[in-house]
TrEMBL record:
It comes from Paraphoma chrysanthemicola. Signal peptide: none annotated. Residues 265-276 have a biased composition (Pro residues). It comes from the Eukaryota. InterPro entries: AN11006-like (IPR038883). The lineage of its organism: Eukaryota, Fungi, Dikarya, Ascomycota, Pezizomycotina. Residues 1-25, 280-310 have a biased composition (Low complexity). Residues 1-56, 247-323 are annotated as: Disordered. This is Uncharacterized protein. Residues 44-56 have a biased composition (Polar residues).
Length: 439
């Protein structure tokens, strides 16, 4: 009885052991329970949607850093650049909408994107100290600035000339912006009234008492015109005195002739000249009939020794065109003429030489790097009607924008490119050109 009962037990053990061993060795055996599914070992490989979920759970993972460097640079350029200049200090008239929060993502993104912020934008400063201080207080990455705009006022011109021409490491454009490639200087050169208005006021002032010619103008324009009139009067007086001294060396020997001519009536005055062109007004404000001809001084006829006779001043020593001509750069001119004579641009340069345009270019010539492009825009404000008249006189020289302002082409001056911009302004009480055209 004992042997019979032991045999099934041994068989049960062997069968159980064999079945257990078969379960561990046969990987492709069907499951014991049909209701329990098979667990796959590489589930993430069969379902790609789980990869981003696993990566997002990693705090060190960044989709931006997973992009190639070229694509990241395009993202930085899109988020951190603006077509408008960045004003400092102060705020620009337009909003830039920079994505500066991108700079605070992590250290690597900050180091990559901050260079784009400074190298791909334009910065505007209105005082030389602003540019110098900005480099001190801003990020060291401002070392990469490549384009700046300077707005220069007349009263700050000497400060700017000193800063641009300095070679010291503490305060100079050369050391503040070592990677500068583009420099734009907008220099305001003042405002002035119309030449036609000045001539009309001069005639009206002589016929009216109490300065009736200036009565209809605003006080600022009246003061400005009065200053110009005084300058014109002093210049004409000096010319008349010079002619009188040159033509009266034989006044003592010709005393008898002078006595006989005392009874002669003075010749009638010539008709008033037309309104002087603006280019003549820039050259010194001489009347139109004094600017005819060339630079050679021809002998003048002898003047009567009558005290009432007004001597005729000699022609000026500079050249002015008798009529407006096409101002094409590089035109064929005689050998004794300068390449840029008879142009509105160079007339302005002669007029503005004392204002410091030439000294500004010379200061930059010694300190700027060879790869730096310098452009200077000299801005002058005149009445809007005169802008229209100048554009009609010099259509080949001036280009107009959508605001009605005009600008000449850029031309080289001591290594820099200089242009004259003429901004128009409306005079209260005087109809503009557009109003007259509509009428």
């Amino acid at each position: 009885m004992a042997s019979r009962t032991s045999t099934p037990r041994s068989r049960s053990r062997s069968s159980t052991g064999s079945s257990g061993s078969s379960d561990t060795t046969m990987l492709d055996a069907p499951p014991q329970s049909p209701s329990r599914p098979v667990r796959l070992r590489h589930l993430s490989a069969s379902n790609p949607n789980t990869a981003p979920q696993a990566a997002s759970s990693d705090p060190a993972f960044s989709l931006l850093l997973s992009l190639p460097r070229e694509l990241r640079e395009r993202v930085y350029t899109y988020a951190l650049t603006s077509p408008y200049p960045i004003w400092w200090p102060g705020f620009a008239p337009v909003q830039h909408n920079f994505g500066t929060s991108l700079l605070r993502v992590n250290k690597q993104i900050h180091e990559e994107s901050v260079q784009t912020l400074y190298a791909a934008n334009k910065f505007l400063f209105t005082h030389p100290s602003d540019c110098n201080i900005f480099r001190v207080i801003s990020s060291p990455a401002s070392y990469n600035i490549t384009c700046v705009y300077f707005r220069i006022r007349e009263k700050d011109l000497r400060l700017w000339t000193s800063y641009l021409g300095s070679k010291t490491a503490e305060r100079s454009l050369k050391f503040d912006l070592p990677k500068l490639r583009s420099l734009w200087i907008f220099m305001r050169c003042g405002s002035m009234g119309t030449p036609a208005m000045i001539g009309q006021l001069g005639q009206g002032g002589m016929g009216m008492q109490g300065g009736g010619g200036l009565a209809g103008l605003p006080p600022a324009i009246a003061v400005q015109v009065q200053v110009v009139q005084n300058a014109l009067g002093q210049q004409l007086h000096a010319l008349q005195q010079q002619v009188h001294n040159l033509n009266n060396p034989h006044a003592d020997t010709a005393g008898n002739a002078a006595d006989t001519q005392d009874d002669l009536a003075p010749p009638p005055p010539p008709p008033p000249p037309p309104a002087m062109p603006f280019v003549q007004f820039q050259q010194g404000g001489l009347p139109h009939h004094l600017g005819q001809g060339h630079a050679h001084n021809h002998p003048q006829p002898a003047l009567p020794a009558n005290a009432n006779a007004i001597p005729i001043p000699p022609p000026p020593t500079f050249n002015l065109p008798a009529a407006p001509t096409a101002l094409v750069p590089g035109a064929n001119l005689p050998a004794h003429h300068h390449q840029h004579q008879h142009t509105l641009y160079n007339s302005f340069l002669r007029f503005e030489r004392e204002m410091g345009v030439e000294s500004l270019c010379l200061s930059l010539q010694e300190t700027r790097r060879q790869e730096t492009e310098v452009k200077i825009v000299c801005i002058m404000r005149i009445p809007r009607r005169e802008v229209e008249r100048l554009y009609q006189l010099y259509p080949n020289e001036l280009e107009r924008d959508r605001h009605g302002d005009a600008r000449t082409r850029f031309r080289k001056l001591h290594g820099a490119e200089v242009s004259l911009e003429i901004n128009g302004y409306d005079i209260p009480g005087m109809p503009s050109h557009d109003t007259q055209a509509q009428g």
